[in-house]
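WARN retry 2 of 3 for item q-0093 after timeout on previous attempt; input resubmitted unchanged.
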Amino acid sequence: MTVKEEKNIPQSNTPSEEEIRIAVIQAQCNQDVGRSQKLYDLEAQYQKPLIAKNQAALENELKEFKRKDEQFKQYVLDNQ
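OK item q-0093 returned
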């Protein structure tokens, strides 16, 4: 038995109006102070060297994905 069940706290996956209101205020504040952009910039800063290091492998995977995608499309066209 969980704590929520034990205390008969109602469980809901749908946020309340108050939770939505607070989330909107927080998101707007983050946007206003540039927090969201700073987070994206920081993440990009860490991703950039990894992408550069693995660029060739990423391009090969993309080519392979496109090749398979074309094969699947052709298969569907041939077997309709």
